[in-house]
Amino acid sequence: MKLDVVILAGAPNNGPLKRVSDTEHEALIKIARLPMVEYVLKAVNQAKYTGRVAVVGPKKELEESIQEKVDIFIEAGYSIKDNILRGLAAFEDRSDYILLMTSDIPLITAEVIDKYIEACLQDGKADLYYPIIPRECNLEKFPMSRRTYFQLAEGVFTGGNMVIVKPDIFTGTGDLLDKVIALRKKPWKLSRLLGIKFILRFVTGNLSIVEIEDKVAKITGYRGHFMITEDAEIGFDVDKPSDLEIMQNTIIS
């Protein structure tokens, strides 16, 4: 099975990266003379389990800047949720699962993408697969990185930027989806959606992956699964100058 791919590339460059680049959108910040999103596209196009590719962002600028193959460029909206829905709408006869990615993980490779897709499809029991990377794996590969970590009963993890999802999950969760998207970089706050007992157990690091998955399924009607992966490239996104420096040094070397 080949999965259609939606790459989110609409984030404006109005955060910490503004200090080192005046490029209007983060996806088009250059690393070794190529826009950051170009590296993501190259990996996607080389992967064997990926199909059609849609990029959601500043359509005109992307069309003028990108050399890698893209099946459809889509003008970005005003929110992440809107951009996700626009991307999904591009594929009327879409695959059962969609690979949803951000444009700020330029160290991602075709091998990592294929490995992740294969692992998720072999499981095949969930509506959404979210990657989590053990802290030791991330620090081994990127010792200088500063990431947000959270502790579960199974260990300490950081989140990834590549989700495999059944598209209809985004049309049935409404306000809950908005909250999850808004809190995506502060995973400890997600426990608020699950009740006070979960908050306490999350804070003490005693909450297990299965318990979270079961509770979310009961609330939303959809089955999510935390997919543990050792491939830290999935989680290492560029959102501050120190990240950009690490990426530049890694790619150039």
How would you describe what is shown here?
With 253 residues, the protein is of the alpha/beta class. The protein has a single domain (3-252), classed as Spore Coat Polysaccharide Biosynthesis Protein SpsA, Chain A (Alpha-Beta Complex), CATH 3.90.550.10. The chain contains 10 helices and 11 strands. The strands form 2 sheets. Strands 1, 4, 5, 6, 7, 8, 9, 10 and 11 form a 9-stranded mixed β-sheet that branches. Strands 2-3 form a two-stranded antiparallel ribbon. A hairpin with a 2-residue loop joins strand 8 (150-152) and strand 9 (155-159). The chain is globular and about 50 Å long.
Lay out the secondary structure:
Layout: E1 3-8, E2 30-31, E3 34-35, H1 36-46, E4 50-57, H2 59-65, E5 72-75, H3 80-89, E6 98-102, H4 110-123, E7 128-134, H5 135-141, E8 150-152, E9 155-159, E10 162-165, H6 175-182, H7 187-190, H8 196-203, H9 209-220, E11 224-228, H10 241-252
Parallel strand pairs: 1-4, 1-6, 4-5, 7-11
Antiparallel strand pairs: 2-3, 6-10, 7-9, 7-10, 8-9
